[in-house]
Amino acid sequence: MTQCKTSKEIGGMGHSLKRKEDARFIQGKGHYVDDIKLPGMLYMDIVRSPYAYAKIKSINIEEAMKVPGVITVVTGKDLEKYKLHWMPTLMSDTQMVLPTDTVMYQAQEVCAVIATSKYAARDGREAVKVEYEPMKPVMDPFKSLDPAAPVLRTDKPGKKDNHIWHWQAGDKEKTAQVFANADVVIKQQMHIPRIHVVSIETCGCVADYDKVNHHLTMYMTTQAPHAIRTVIALVAGHVGLSEERIRVVSPDIGGGFGGKVPVYPGYVIAIAVSFLVGKPVKWIEDRSENLQADSFARDYHITAELAGTKEGKILATRFKVLADHGYTDAAANPSKFPLGLFSICTGSYDYNAAFVEADAVYTNKPPGGVAYRCSFRVTEAVQAIERLTDMFAKKIGKDPAELRMQNFIKKEDFPWHSPTGWIYDSGNYQAGLQKAMDVVGYAALRKEQAEKQARGELMGIGISTFTEIVGAGPSKDFDILGIKMFDSAEIRVHPTGKAIARFGTKSQGQGHETTYAQIIAEELGIPAENIQVEEGDTDTAPYGLGTYASRSTPTAGAAAAVASRKLRDKARKIAAYLLEVSENDLEWETGKFFVKGAPEKSKTIQEIVFAAYTNHPQGMEAGFEATHYYDPPNLTFPSGAYICVVDIDKETGAIHIRRFVAIDDCGNIINPMIVQGQVHGGLTQAVAPAMYEELIYDGEGNILNGTLMDYLVPTAVESPKWETGHTCTPSPHHPIGAKGVGESPTVGGPPAIANAIIDALSPFGITHIDIPITPYKVWKALKEHGAYDK
Ligand code: MCN
Ligand code: CUN
């Protein structure tokens, strides 16, 4: 009998297989959109508005056309002739591709210069003269709703204000009653500022329209190739480019983080130009354009309230949100909930009264609402509930860990119905927090803190015990422009037992080439190294909704498992035929079927697959391939317990993160090393909004920190040594018991840091500082609270 290989030997689930894709990345062989060079390719550069709100009086292209190499300049009026000057956003809002008369935000695309080289295009851009008539922009979302404020979206017939949508969840009356009768009420106004994804690779594309075949190939940095193809078809349908004539190819991506979900005007302009001039057109944003014009997230103003007992029991929460979406709701937020999944804001705690209410408004900021490593607004929700929880503990003088332990939903209470309507699939919050406390040495740290405080030193310990919500669908609740959210896997096994698997998702660095192969390896017994994983080409991959909201594992990962199981069912039939036994007499063991009680009689998956092409049972279809479109029955609810320890220099307000322990629970893990990598990267991105990043606009709509000189991005230097670990509570409804993890660290990280900082400052009576908590804000708060008084 041939010894079967173990799951580890074939690179199955649960093993830290080295990432297959890294061989090319670390050797400089990655293939990014800017690496694409097509014969006759032209380059596009974009003239952008210096004003946040202005009428365009004239666009003079005369000098630009004289620049050697400049072919043409395309304006909104040119696009209007083809009805290509407007496009839908993924939130079913609309957005100008190029303006015909008014610019609505600073850095908005005004016109595009096309040239034979990118340098000529840039020179041409500088030579275009645009005359504007500036108007007073609306920059404050609260004033945007003022009846005196100008109506910004005059393109919308009948629109009389700047309100985009209202949304609410939970029981308003019941919650109000609980609040009215509660011993303790905490109320805090919070702002989660506008930030930027700052992926290493900016956005860009090569639009290649082939006139002869009336066909468009769009190479672009997108996290959702199929969904984007559908959107392009909606726009380019005006020039007869229907979906079968459009191929979207997303090559390697240098970070997406949500910023590469939406369709940006630059893409559509490139398509339009390629269509008009009949040549491929490349557009690659430079760093400043990227930072100033697109990929903006957050900007939530939250009034957060918590009601509880003197003993520390949380009874109810209430959240009122004002979301500043800028010029348009670009909110890559494919769900029927305009507020995304913010209503997970009741957190990990057991109480049954909550009410969430939100309004979104237009302002003259660039399009907002992009989902930045957030699971559609979960970062905002978790910041609110975890800050509130800490404030509550402080108010009643209880240790925040103890208070959390007291309020956690118990592991036996899952599936748990949240007061805002979610059904949490599974969790064990006590175990996670206990583990984090053990690893960090919680009791000893509190002792040290007390000693330090007695000496006037500032040390803080912050906890965040968050519940994430990832894996959109189910299709009944989630869609993009009506397209239901499932995800797909197609597995094709070649006669020699090697496979190619294609997915509707698209990795931007998450390691899908490795982890999907591991799932299939585990389920089918084909070594992961023999499974080629492909994503990102709409001509070959099955339709899928893409990678964001940590949905790839919950949806496409599940599809991979189910498709593998379909193949295993076929394999069983073939094995029974080959071994001349009944299917019921066969047993599966990694990579082979054997006869029960006679293990020497077996057929390996490779032998079975070969037979599928050469010697299969009569009446059975030849070949060995399966496709599955997986529509999840529910979302998955990963969780985590994070503890952060900070030391603060009282004189300067400088914050030093001394320790950070992150215990994540994403159910069964496919690749522990990749999960750890996700958490490391995500935690560094959690330091960013907690302590550094915030895009600031002045009253005229000018961005004040629109370059990386001013917009601070944390690097390895600012990152502590991350101490990671996990607990495992499998998802009961997911085929392999996995939950997503990609966004957990950015969701759970910021409040742990904020809570640690506030904890350090609490001896002075400081109860809250909005993120990013900078040394200046710390110093100012200390000063205001008399810390420097003699
Ligand atoms: N994984 C695992 N076991 C689990 C869960 C996940 O081994 N139980 C692995 C997965 O197989 C996958 C990775 O961890 O290789 C992330 O999986 P998942 O949580 O399903 O998230 P997605 O693949 O859908 O990735 C999306 C998520 C999001 S929404 C953002 S934003 C983000 C992130 O991932 N952007 C990233 N991580 C990123 N990492 C990199 N390098 N670059 C980005 O742009
Ligand atoms: Cu919330 S950002 Mo990710 O969903 O691409």
TrEMBL record:
Pfam families: Ald_Xan_dh_C, MoCoBD_1, MoCoBD_2. SMART domains: Ald_Xan_dh_C. Keywords: Molybdenum, Oxidoreductase. The keyword Oxidoreductase applies. One of its GO terms (molecular function) is anaerobic carbon-monoxide dehydrogenase activity. Residues 27-136 form the Aldehyde oxidase/xanthine dehydrogenase a/b hammerhead domain. This is Carbon monoxide dehydrogenase. It comes from Niastella vici.
